[in-house]
Amino acid sequence: MTDSLGISEAQILGLFLSSVFWGMLLITFVQVMKCFLWDNERERFKSASKINWFMLIVALLLMTLSTLNVALELLHCIEAFILYTGPGGSNAKFTRLKDWVNILNTTCNIPLGKVISDGVLIYRCWAVCNHSISIIIFPILLWMGYLALAIFVIYLEVSAGNTQLLLTGGVSRMITASITAACTMSLVNNIITTGMIVYRIRDVDRSNVLHGNQGHGSSIPGNDGLFGRTKRRRTKLQNVIRIVIESGMMYTTIALITFITFVVGSNSFYATSDVELQILSIAFNLIIIRISTRPGGSDSYSSSAQLTTRRQPHPLHKFTVAVRKTVDLTEPGELDSALGLSDPSTPPQSLSLDVEKGD
Fold first, then answer.
1. CB contact at 8 A, 343 and 51
2. Where along the chain do its domains lie?
3. Which residue of 17, 18, 91, 111 lies most exposed, with the fewest beta carbons within 10 A?
4. Where, by residue number, does the polypeptide cross the bilayer (predicted)?
5. pLDDT-based confidence at 315, cuts 50/70/90?
6. Residue 41 — pLDDT band, cuts 50, 70, 90?
7. Phi and psi at residue 320, in whole multiples of 5°?
Protein backbone atom coordinates (compact mmCIF):
# COMPACT_ATOMS: atom_id res chain seq x y z
CA MET A 1 0.00 0.00 0.00
CA THR A 2 1.38 3.37 -1.02
CA ASP A 3 1.82 5.86 1.82
CA SER A 4 -0.17 9.01 1.09
CA LEU A 5 2.17 11.01 3.35
CA GLY A 6 5.48 11.69 1.67
CA ILE A 7 8.71 11.63 3.63
CA SER A 8 9.31 15.35 3.08
CA GLU A 9 5.84 16.21 4.35
CA ALA A 10 6.36 13.89 7.32
CA GLN A 11 9.62 15.64 8.22
CA ILE A 12 7.97 19.07 8.10
CA LEU A 13 5.08 17.78 10.22
CA GLY A 14 7.57 16.31 12.68
CA LEU A 15 9.43 19.61 12.98
CA PHE A 16 6.17 21.49 13.61
CA LEU A 17 4.87 19.04 16.22
CA SER A 18 8.17 18.67 18.03
CA SER A 19 8.48 22.49 18.19
CA VAL A 20 4.99 22.79 19.69
CA PHE A 21 5.67 20.15 22.32
CA TRP A 22 9.12 21.60 23.01
CA GLY A 23 7.38 24.84 23.97
CA MET A 24 5.24 22.88 26.43
CA LEU A 25 8.36 21.15 27.71
CA LEU A 26 10.05 24.49 28.30
CA ILE A 27 7.20 25.59 30.57
CA THR A 28 7.34 22.38 32.62
CA PHE A 29 11.14 22.56 32.74
CA VAL A 30 11.10 26.00 34.36
CA GLN A 31 8.57 24.78 36.92
CA VAL A 32 10.48 21.60 37.72
CA MET A 33 13.69 23.59 38.22
CA LYS A 34 11.81 25.69 40.74
CA CYS A 35 10.71 22.51 42.53
CA PHE A 36 14.31 21.30 42.68
CA LEU A 37 16.05 24.53 43.64
CA TRP A 38 13.56 26.79 45.46
CA ASP A 39 12.37 26.35 49.04
CA ASN A 40 8.81 27.72 49.17
CA GLU A 41 8.57 27.63 52.96
CA ARG A 42 11.72 29.66 53.58
CA GLU A 43 11.44 31.62 50.31
CA ARG A 44 15.05 31.10 49.31
CA PHE A 45 17.19 28.71 47.28
CA LYS A 46 17.76 25.27 48.76
CA SER A 47 21.15 24.36 50.11
CA ALA A 48 23.21 21.90 48.07
CA SER A 49 22.55 19.11 50.57
CA LYS A 50 18.77 19.44 50.15
CA ILE A 51 18.74 19.14 46.35
CA ASN A 52 18.04 15.79 44.73
CA TRP A 53 20.97 15.95 42.32
CA PHE A 54 20.18 12.64 40.62
CA MET A 55 16.73 13.72 39.47
CA LEU A 56 17.97 17.22 38.68
CA ILE A 57 20.63 15.83 36.34
CA VAL A 58 18.05 13.57 34.68
CA ALA A 59 15.76 16.55 34.04
CA LEU A 60 18.66 18.52 32.55
CA LEU A 61 19.69 15.61 30.32
CA LEU A 62 16.16 15.11 28.99
CA MET A 63 15.81 18.83 28.30
CA THR A 64 19.16 18.87 26.50
CA LEU A 65 18.26 15.87 24.34
CA SER A 66 14.84 17.29 23.48
CA THR A 67 16.35 20.64 22.50
CA LEU A 68 19.03 18.94 20.42
CA ASN A 69 16.33 16.89 18.68
CA VAL A 70 14.42 20.02 17.59
CA ALA A 71 17.64 21.72 16.48
CA LEU A 72 18.67 18.72 14.38
CA GLU A 73 15.23 18.54 12.77
CA LEU A 74 15.45 22.22 11.83
CA LEU A 75 18.95 21.77 10.44
CA HIS A 76 17.84 18.73 8.44
CA CYS A 77 14.95 20.63 6.87
CA ILE A 78 17.19 23.58 5.98
CA GLU A 79 19.70 21.25 4.33
CA ALA A 80 17.03 19.32 2.42
CA PHE A 81 14.91 22.23 1.16
CA ILE A 82 17.47 25.02 0.77
CA LEU A 83 21.08 23.82 0.69
CA TYR A 84 20.75 20.49 -1.13
CA THR A 85 20.66 20.83 -4.93
CA GLY A 86 21.47 17.26 -5.97
CA PRO A 87 19.27 14.71 -7.74
CA GLY A 88 16.11 13.49 -6.03
CA GLY A 89 15.43 16.74 -4.17
CA SER A 90 14.50 16.75 -0.51
CA ASN A 91 13.33 13.12 -0.57
CA ALA A 92 16.83 11.97 -1.48
CA LYS A 93 18.31 14.00 1.36
CA PHE A 94 15.87 12.66 3.96
CA THR A 95 16.37 9.03 2.90
CA ARG A 96 20.15 9.29 3.19
CA LEU A 97 20.23 7.42 6.49
CA LYS A 98 24.04 7.52 6.74
CA ASP A 99 23.94 11.31 6.97
CA TRP A 100 25.42 12.43 10.30
CA VAL A 101 22.26 14.42 11.15
CA ASN A 102 20.13 11.28 10.78
CA ILE A 103 22.51 9.20 12.89
CA LEU A 104 22.74 11.81 15.66
CA ASN A 105 18.96 12.27 15.67
CA THR A 106 18.49 8.50 15.93
CA THR A 107 20.92 8.44 18.84
CA CYS A 108 18.92 11.10 20.71
CA ASN A 109 15.57 9.40 20.15
CA ILE A 110 16.32 5.69 20.49
CA PRO A 111 19.18 4.95 22.90
CA LEU A 112 19.62 8.03 25.05
CA GLY A 113 16.12 9.37 25.73
CA LYS A 114 14.39 6.05 26.39
CA VAL A 115 17.33 4.51 28.22
CA ILE A 116 17.40 7.42 30.68
CA SER A 117 13.63 7.54 31.24
CA ASP A 118 13.23 3.76 31.54
CA GLY A 119 16.17 3.64 33.95
CA VAL A 120 14.58 6.28 36.18
CA LEU A 121 11.29 4.38 36.11
CA ILE A 122 13.06 1.20 37.24
CA TYR A 123 14.77 3.17 40.03
CA ARG A 124 11.41 4.51 41.20
CA CYS A 125 9.97 0.99 41.20
CA TRP A 126 12.94 -0.27 43.23
CA ALA A 127 12.68 2.56 45.77
CA VAL A 128 8.91 2.30 46.25
CA CYS A 129 9.05 -1.52 46.57
CA ASN A 130 11.36 -1.35 49.61
CA HIS A 131 14.59 -1.76 47.60
CA SER A 132 13.64 -5.27 46.51
CA ILE A 133 16.07 -6.49 43.84
CA SER A 134 13.90 -9.46 42.86
CA ILE A 135 11.09 -7.08 41.84
CA ILE A 136 13.18 -5.30 39.21
CA ILE A 137 15.19 -8.21 37.77
CA PHE A 138 12.88 -8.63 34.76
CA PRO A 139 12.60 -4.85 34.08
CA ILE A 140 16.41 -4.59 34.21
CA LEU A 141 16.73 -7.43 31.69
CA LEU A 142 14.28 -5.65 29.38
CA TRP A 143 16.19 -2.39 29.84
CA MET A 144 19.51 -4.04 29.00
CA GLY A 145 17.98 -5.77 25.98
CA TYR A 146 16.64 -2.46 24.69
CA LEU A 147 20.01 -0.78 25.17
CA ALA A 148 21.81 -3.57 23.29
CA LEU A 149 19.39 -3.45 20.36
CA ALA A 150 19.54 0.36 20.18
CA ILE A 151 23.33 0.27 19.99
CA PHE A 152 23.10 -2.44 17.34
CA VAL A 153 20.76 -0.31 15.18
CA ILE A 154 23.14 2.64 15.29
CA TYR A 155 26.05 0.33 14.45
CA LEU A 156 24.20 -0.97 11.38
CA GLU A 157 23.51 2.56 10.15
CA VAL A 158 27.10 3.69 10.62
CA SER A 159 28.78 0.59 9.17
CA ALA A 160 26.48 -0.04 6.17
CA GLY A 161 28.27 0.24 2.83
CA ASN A 162 25.71 2.49 1.11
CA THR A 163 22.32 4.10 1.57
CA GLN A 164 20.55 1.79 -0.87
CA LEU A 165 21.59 -1.20 1.21
CA LEU A 166 20.07 0.41 4.27
CA LEU A 167 16.75 0.98 2.50
CA THR A 168 16.24 -2.22 0.53
CA GLY A 169 18.94 -4.75 1.41
CA GLY A 170 19.35 -7.28 4.18
CA VAL A 171 20.48 -4.53 6.55
CA SER A 172 17.04 -2.94 6.22
CA ARG A 173 15.36 -6.11 7.46
CA MET A 174 17.79 -6.33 10.39
CA ILE A 175 17.17 -2.70 11.36
CA THR A 176 13.39 -3.15 11.13
CA ALA A 177 13.45 -6.30 13.28
CA SER A 178 15.80 -4.72 15.84
CA ILE A 179 13.75 -1.51 16.21
CA THR A 180 10.53 -3.54 16.49
CA ALA A 181 11.98 -5.73 19.24
CA ALA A 182 13.47 -2.73 21.08
CA CYS A 183 10.20 -0.77 21.04
CA THR A 184 8.34 -3.84 22.31
CA MET A 185 10.78 -4.22 25.21
CA SER A 186 10.44 -0.56 26.15
CA LEU A 187 6.63 -0.66 26.06
CA VAL A 188 6.45 -3.82 28.17
CA ASN A 189 8.98 -2.39 30.62
CA ASN A 190 6.95 0.81 31.07
CA ILE A 191 3.70 -1.07 31.62
CA ILE A 192 5.21 -3.51 34.13
CA THR A 193 7.15 -1.01 36.22
CA THR A 194 4.33 1.55 36.31
CA GLY A 195 1.91 -1.21 37.31
CA MET A 196 4.16 -2.37 40.16
CA ILE A 197 4.60 1.20 41.44
CA VAL A 198 0.84 1.78 41.43
CA TYR A 199 0.12 -1.59 43.06
CA ARG A 200 2.64 -0.97 45.85
CA ILE A 201 1.35 2.52 46.68
CA ARG A 202 -2.26 1.30 46.52
CA ASP A 203 -1.41 -1.60 48.85
CA VAL A 204 0.09 0.80 51.41
CA ASP A 205 -2.90 3.13 51.11
CA ARG A 206 -5.29 0.26 51.82
CA SER A 207 -3.17 -0.85 54.79
CA ASN A 208 -3.32 2.67 56.20
CA VAL A 209 -7.10 2.59 55.90
CA LEU A 210 -7.36 -0.79 57.64
CA HIS A 211 -5.20 0.43 60.51
CA GLY A 212 -7.16 3.66 60.81
CA ASN A 213 -4.18 5.82 59.93
CA GLN A 214 -6.01 7.89 57.36
CA GLY A 215 -9.53 8.52 56.27
CA HIS A 216 -10.49 6.78 53.08
CA GLY A 217 -12.44 8.99 50.74
CA SER A 218 -14.13 11.20 53.29
CA SER A 219 -17.14 12.99 51.87
CA ILE A 220 -17.04 16.68 50.98
CA PRO A 221 -20.07 18.52 52.41
CA GLY A 222 -22.28 20.28 49.90
CA ASN A 223 -20.39 18.96 46.88
CA ASP A 224 -22.42 16.48 44.88
CA GLY A 225 -21.06 14.61 41.91
CA LEU A 226 -22.76 13.13 38.87
CA PHE A 227 -26.32 11.83 39.41
CA GLY A 228 -26.42 13.35 42.89
CA ARG A 229 -23.65 11.15 44.30
CA THR A 230 -21.53 12.69 47.04
CA LYS A 231 -17.96 13.37 45.97
CA ARG A 232 -15.24 11.67 47.97
CA ARG A 233 -11.97 13.29 48.98
CA ARG A 234 -9.01 11.19 47.84
CA THR A 235 -6.09 10.53 50.13
CA LYS A 236 -2.67 11.80 49.10
CA LEU A 237 -1.48 8.33 48.20
CA GLN A 238 -4.49 7.96 45.94
CA ASN A 239 -3.53 11.24 44.28
CA VAL A 240 0.01 9.94 43.78
CA ILE A 241 -1.42 6.86 42.08
CA ARG A 242 -3.54 9.00 39.79
CA ILE A 243 -0.59 11.21 38.84
CA VAL A 244 1.69 8.24 38.10
CA ILE A 245 -0.98 6.55 35.97
CA GLU A 246 -1.82 9.70 34.00
CA SER A 247 1.81 10.53 33.27
CA GLY A 248 2.56 6.91 32.40
CA MET A 249 -0.40 6.74 30.04
CA MET A 250 0.70 9.95 28.34
CA TYR A 251 4.05 8.48 27.36
CA THR A 252 2.79 4.93 26.73
CA THR A 253 0.14 6.21 24.30
CA ILE A 254 2.59 8.11 22.09
CA ALA A 255 5.08 5.21 22.29
CA LEU A 256 2.37 2.81 21.13
CA ILE A 257 1.37 5.13 18.26
CA THR A 258 5.03 5.39 17.20
CA PHE A 259 5.39 1.61 17.34
CA ILE A 260 2.28 1.06 15.19
CA THR A 261 3.33 3.61 12.57
CA PHE A 262 6.74 1.95 12.32
CA VAL A 263 5.34 -1.57 12.01
CA VAL A 264 2.90 -0.61 9.24
CA GLY A 265 5.66 1.27 7.40
CA SER A 266 4.03 4.71 7.46
CA ASN A 267 6.13 7.83 6.97
CA SER A 268 4.23 9.37 9.88
CA PHE A 269 6.72 7.44 12.02
CA TYR A 270 9.18 10.32 11.47
CA ALA A 271 6.72 12.76 13.03
CA THR A 272 5.61 10.58 15.96
CA SER A 273 9.17 9.57 16.86
CA ASP A 274 10.17 13.25 17.11
CA VAL A 275 7.19 14.00 19.36
CA GLU A 276 7.87 10.95 21.53
CA LEU A 277 11.06 12.37 23.04
CA GLN A 278 9.32 15.65 23.92
CA ILE A 279 6.35 13.92 25.59
CA LEU A 280 8.70 11.58 27.44
CA SER A 281 10.43 14.59 29.01
CA ILE A 282 7.11 16.35 29.73
CA ALA A 283 5.75 13.27 31.52
CA PHE A 284 8.86 13.08 33.70
CA ASN A 285 8.51 16.74 34.70
CA LEU A 286 4.77 16.57 35.34
CA ILE A 287 5.13 13.83 37.96
CA ILE A 288 7.52 15.99 39.97
CA ILE A 289 5.54 19.21 39.52
CA ARG A 290 2.13 17.78 40.42
CA ILE A 291 3.28 15.76 43.43
CA SER A 292 5.38 18.64 44.78
CA THR A 293 2.15 20.59 45.30
CA ARG A 294 1.01 17.93 47.82
CA PRO A 295 -2.41 17.44 46.21
CA GLY A 296 -5.61 17.31 48.22
CA GLY A 297 -6.28 15.04 51.11
CA SER A 298 -5.64 15.26 54.80
CA ASP A 299 -3.07 12.50 55.09
CA SER A 300 0.68 12.24 54.72
CA TYR A 301 2.52 10.23 52.08
CA SER A 302 3.92 7.30 53.98
CA SER A 303 3.56 7.95 57.67
CA SER A 304 1.04 9.37 60.07
CA ALA A 305 1.05 10.47 63.69
CA GLN A 306 -1.82 10.68 66.09
CA LEU A 307 -1.53 13.21 68.90
CA THR A 308 -4.14 12.91 71.62
CA THR A 309 -4.83 16.07 73.64
CA ARG A 310 -5.71 15.43 77.26
CA ARG A 311 -6.16 17.65 80.28
CA GLN A 312 -2.96 17.36 82.28
CA PRO A 313 -3.07 17.48 86.06
CA HIS A 314 0.45 18.93 86.18
CA PRO A 315 2.22 21.85 84.44
CA LEU A 316 3.35 21.29 80.85
CA HIS A 317 6.80 22.09 79.54
CA LYS A 318 8.45 22.04 76.13
CA PHE A 319 8.70 18.51 74.80
CA THR A 320 9.48 16.73 71.53
CA VAL A 321 7.28 14.14 69.83
CA ALA A 322 8.98 11.95 67.21
CA VAL A 323 6.74 11.04 64.31
CA ARG A 324 6.46 7.24 64.08
CA LYS A 325 5.70 5.38 60.87
CA THR A 326 2.82 2.99 61.32
CA VAL A 327 2.93 1.53 57.82
CA ASP A 328 6.36 1.06 56.26
CA LEU A 329 6.37 2.16 52.63
CA THR A 330 9.99 3.20 52.26
CA GLU A 331 12.73 4.78 54.30
CA PRO A 332 12.05 8.35 55.46
CA GLY A 333 11.87 10.61 52.44
CA GLU A 334 12.43 7.72 50.02
CA LEU A 335 9.13 8.11 48.18
CA ASP A 336 9.75 11.82 47.70
CA SER A 337 13.31 11.06 46.59
CA ALA A 338 12.14 8.44 44.10
CA LEU A 339 9.68 10.91 42.64
CA GLY A 340 12.35 13.61 42.56
CA LEU A 341 11.18 15.92 45.34
CA SER A 342 13.77 15.68 48.09
CA ASP A 343 17.23 14.50 48.89
CA PRO A 344 17.32 10.80 49.97
CA SER A 345 19.57 11.63 52.90
CA THR A 346 17.02 13.98 54.50
CA PRO A 347 16.57 12.80 58.11
CA PRO A 348 13.14 12.32 59.69
CA GLN A 349 11.88 15.42 61.41
CA SER A 350 10.69 15.80 64.96
CA LEU A 351 7.70 17.79 66.06
CA SER A 352 8.39 20.33 68.81
CA LEU A 353 5.51 21.76 70.79
CA ASP A 354 5.95 24.80 73.03
CA VAL A 355 3.35 24.90 75.75
CA GLU A 356 3.16 27.61 78.38
CA LYS A 357 3.47 26.45 81.94
CA GLY A 358 0.11 26.34 83.66
CA ASP A 359 -0.77 28.05 86.88
1. yes
2. 7-292
3. 91
4. 12-33, 53-72, 133-155, 175-199, 240-265
5. very low
6. confident
7. -120, 130
